[in-house]
Automatic annotation (TrEMBL):
Coiled coil: none annotated. GO terms for molecular function: cytoskeletal anchor activity. This is Protein inscuteable homologue C-terminal domain-containing protein. Residues 41-233 form the Protein inscuteable homologue C-terminal domain. The lineage of its organism: Eukaryota, Metazoa, Spiralia, Lophotrochozoa, Mollusca. Pfam families: Insc_C. It comes from Lymnaea stagnalis (Great pond snail).
């Protein structure tokens, strides 16, 4: 049975999966009746079924991610906003493909908007942590730069009025997007332009902080920056 609010493209893909499943059943039944197994057609049909099922899963996950991003964009209450951000963090921990889907459906843009519009420090910290979590995928890093996220990070790190916990989370995002395992950091034009300003802010944060986590995140960001740009060592 179809759920009423399921988009038509998901329902259509469900039908494709059912059709491919029926073909597989037909082939296996025919092979059993004739006591003759033609391996190539069966393997091909299994491949078609697997591909159609993968597309169904991708469509369904994409739809659910869309719903979560829309909730993030429309949330007005702080507690509900935190719940949605926690859900995004959980999804991001599922792996790079899920992070790619979050970027594809506007998750990075929505999180950057939350960081800009929310004055509650805890909320900004959570949104920044979510960004750090999902920016393990190159697509997310590209989206972050596209949405002026680098400027946002620089503003947070250089603003003396921003509390240290928020700056620490911003340092965590910098550490993630400059990770040596990401090729994308070689193409962050805006980051390259702001490198010295960000590096100075991170070093200052390392010096003044008494929090172990903030120090580790800032130090990791500094180390990554010097790894991708040796001129920063000077």
């Amino acid at each position: 049975a179809h759920v009423a609010d399921v988009p038509s493209y998901i329902q259509e893909q469900q039908e494709v999966v059912m059709c491919e499943s029926a073909k597989l059943v037909q082939q296996t039944t025919s092979a059993a009746e004739k006591n003759v197994v033609h391996r190539v057609p069966l393997v091909n049909q299994l491949t078609f079924l697997g591909q159609s099922f993968s597309r169904l899963v991708d469509c369904t996950l994409g739809y659910l991610v869309q719903k979560i991003v829309k909730m993030l964009e429309s949330c007005t209450g702080v507690s509900s906003l935190h719940v949605v951000i926690n859900n995004i963090i959980t999804l991001g921990l599922e792996g790079e493909h899920m992070c790619y889907m979050l970027a594809r459906e506007g998750g990075v843009r929505a999180l950057v908007d939350v960081c800009r519009r929310e004055n509650v420090a805890f909320t900004r910290s959570k949104a920044l942590r979510a960004l750090a979590t999902i920016c393990c995928a190159p697509e997310c890093v590209a989206e972050l730069e596209k949405e002026s996220g680098i400027d946002l990070l620089m503003d947070i790190l250089t603003d003396e009025n921003v509390i240290e916990s928020v700056q620490g989370e911003a340092a965590g995002v910098v550490a993630q997007i400059t990770s040596p395992v990401l090729d994308q950091n070689q193409h962050l034009c805006r980051f390259a332009e702001s490198l010295q300003v960000i590096l100075t802010a991170l070093l200052g944060l390392c010096e003044k902080t008494e929090g172990h986590e903030t120090f580790l995140l800032s130090a990791a960001a500094v180390a990554n920056i010097t790894f991708i740009d040796s001129s920063a060592c000077g």
